[in-house]
Structure formats: structure tokens, C-alpha cells
Amino acid sequence: MRHLPPRHRSALVVMAASVLGLSAPYAAPPAHDTTHAHEVHGDSAHVDSLRARDLIQPDELGRLLAGPSARRPALLHVGFKVLYRSGHITGSKYVGPASKPEGLAALEKVLRPMPRQALLVLYCGCCPWKDCPNALPAARMAHAMGFKDVKVLYVAKNMQTDWIDKGLPTSEGEP
After folding, report:
1. Domain range spanning residue 63?
2. Chain-wide mean pLDDT for the chain?
3. Residue 135 exposed, middle or buried by CB count within 10 Å (0-12, 13-18, 19+)
């Protein structure tokens, strides 16, 4: 593992931890420009296609959720079940990891009956933003299905740090 570049080592640790259902310690991600929220890393699946306008910051989403119910977005968790159980955004619906075919199939099933004009917020929170395997595939599917207002929650480090520790609305338990 020493011969791998640091960004690949951290991605490998994150993937191994998620497969084992463990939480891995994360170093703060380096500062980067969110104009291009995903970067191309050699053979990585992260593609530079989510832009700043596609993102919603945690504080902004928190304000929307505290506002009138008619203005609240549809909120879908497209990450791993262990994360949803341990702490998810109140009012969100668990879909499953969009990095897996069964997660994308579940997302398609949930999205199919929804109105295409409604604000849709997708989030994962499994790891530092630049390493997330789920946000981009979920956003791509929603756009491909004709959703007009799709946002992805920008989780710079992880849900604990970027949502729960900020005191934003959180629930625990099964989907």
C-alpha cells in the first residue's frame, strides 16, 4: 500500500471500512475549489461533473428544512445503510449506495413517481467529499430521469463533522 499515491491509499481505507461496516478516521481533506467538486484521479470513478451550482451547503439545507414544509426538498440518502442507521438527516429517506447497481435500481424506483420540478437533495456523507463513491452516480441518474432542480449536499469531511456536530436535524434508526 505504501507504493500507492496518498489519495488512493485514503480511498482504499474508506472502501475497506465501508465494506466492513466500520468508520475510518479521516484527515481533513485539502482545501479545493468546489467549482469542480469531483476531480479525475487516474483510474478513479470520480469525474469532474458536479459544479458549485449543483451543490448545497449543510447550513443552507438546514435553513430549508427549518422553513415551511411546502418549501422543503425531497431528501434522499444515497449512501451506506450503516451510516443512515447511525445518524441521518431528519426527514430523509434511505435509498442505498448509488455506487452499486442495486442502489441505483432502488434510486430509480424511488424517483420514478416523483414530480420532476420538485427540489431534490441527494446526500451520502460516507467520507471526504473528494472520495465519495455515491453522490455523483445518484446525481447523474436524477438528471437523466429529467429532474430539473437536483442538489447534492456538500459534505466536506463526513456526516458527523459536517452535519451532526453542527447540531443540524438528525435522527437515528432503521430505514
Report:
1. 34-171
2. 78
3. buried
Comparing C-alpha atoms, which of 103, 100, 126, 118 is closest to residue 45?
100
The pTM assigned to this predicted structure is 0.73
Does the residue 119 lie in any domain? yes
Distance of CA 161 to the CA centre of its chain: 14
Which strands, in side-by-side order, build the sheet including 149-153?
55-56, 149-153, 119-123, 74-77, 93-94
- Residue 159 CA to chain centroid, in angstroms? 9
Kindly report, residue by residue over 101-139, the tens digit of the pLDDT: 999 999 999 999 999 998 999 999 988 888 899 999 999
DSSP 79: S
Cell 432503521 -> residue:
174
Which CATH number is 102's domain given? 3.40.250.10
Of the ranges 15-19, 66-70, 116-120, which one carries the lowest mean pLDDT score? 15-19
Tell me the C-alpha distance between 59 and 57, whole Å: 6
Alpha-helix residue ranges (DSSP H) falling in the chain? 6-20, 58-66, 81-86, 101-111, 135-144, 159-162
